[in-house]
Structure formats: C-alpha cells, structure tokens
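Hello Y.,

Per our agreement to keep a running log of every chain we model this quarter, I'm adding this entry. I've kept the format consistent with earlier entries: sequence first, then predicted structure.
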Amino acid sequence: MDKGKAPIDYTNAVITIKGLKKSFDDQHVLRGIDLELYQGENLVVLGRSGTGKSVLIKIISGLLKADKGHVEVLGKDIDKITDKELQELRIRIGFSFQNSALYDSMTVRKNLEFPLVRNRRNITRPEIDNAVETVLDAVGLGKTINQMPAELSGGQRKRIGIARTLILNPEIMLYDEPTAGLDPITCIEINELINEVQHRYKTSSIIITHDMTCAKSTGDRIAMLLDGQFQRQGSFEEVFKTNDERVKPFFDYNFIQ
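Predicted structure for the entry above:
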C-alpha cells in the first residue's frame, strides 16, 4: 500500500538533537549524534537491537538523562526545564510503548480515560466519553470499549496503546518497536495505522524499529543508527543503495529470498 505523502514543513524542526552522547558504565551507546524531526514527518530510526534506539527516545521524553549534547523538543531544552515544565511537555508527546503498557485491571474504557482524568482536572463526563469514542474509532476498535486487555489480541492491545496516547492530542508521537511480536498481517495493519495517525492527527513521529517493512511503509525519512552514530539518512532507497556490509544485511534478510 502506498501511504502517500503528508505535508511536511522542512523549515520547522520540532525536535533538534546535537552532539548527543550516552553511556552505561563502559558501554558507549550513543556517540555524538545529530538529528532533526520536522513538523508533519514520520522519521524511522533503524538499527540492530541494542544499538541505542530506545535509549534515544527515552532521552527525548526526559525518561533518561544524556551525558552530553543538546536536545530541544517543541522549543524546550530538555536539560534546562523544570520538572513541572517537563510534565507539561510530556502531555504534548505520545509515547507508544513496545508492550502497549495497558493496565490489566482496567477495561479499555478505563485505560483510555485514565490519562484524561489525570491531566485535565476539569474535564466533563460528556467530554471524556466523546474523547474515548473518537480515539477508539480512529484505531478501529470501538466494539472493545468494555473489554479487558487480556481479552484482546496482541495487535488490538497495540492499537489501544496507541489510542491512549492519542487521547491527549499529542503533537509528537514516539513509537518504540510498534510491530514487535506481531504476525505479518497485523504488522501491515499497524503500519497503516501509524500513517493514518500522521494524516488524521497531523503528528510528527519518530518510529524506532528493526522491522524493514515497517521502515519502508511508514518512513518519510530513514536514519540508520550504526556504531552509536547516524551513518546514513534519506529515503528508504537512498539509505540502502550501498555496499556497506553493516547496512546490506538488513535489506538482504528482509527482501532477498
């Protein structure tokens, strides 16, 4: 499926990263990376497991501290804002966790209501009901509203996890391995949903993955993370038009029979 093109404003970077470094003891994970995410763009960060992809988005969302470098998100310097400002910024960022992060003891409705009630104290019951129904419609799971997470498939849980991030109308979406552990057909559905979110909610997104089909289907731009740095950036075709033996195995494994 050709996802088409959402309008991207290449004059407006919603995330700017310069000289970012992060180590854990003697393991140097990020070795001075530079990156920009533009308004309306789906940017895929592609790389092997353990190369620092998830560390990157945890730093962007303020869940981890960088050792060195500059990270600016929606005009805010992550290292210089107060805890209160960081909490306010996080409301503008949707974080889709790899395991969906749903509360097993809550119905789908209660899972979706939770961030609304916590972050918008004066919201009314009709406003809550409308928001829940709207995001469930957006992810195509309106009939699951009274089900428990245990009653859902892996793909449905992933969709509900995305719906829970959308309910606060985020400006930025961070997807951590959105297709991990899913069957091929469900992966296609999740890829299509990521593109639908981009168009419908006008989000700017970073998609962390090592799934090449996800990268090709969702990415307006690909950034290849190798040896702690972005070694190649561009369209899918531009990134993989190379004989670099660190890059070719990704393509060969997925697309050469």
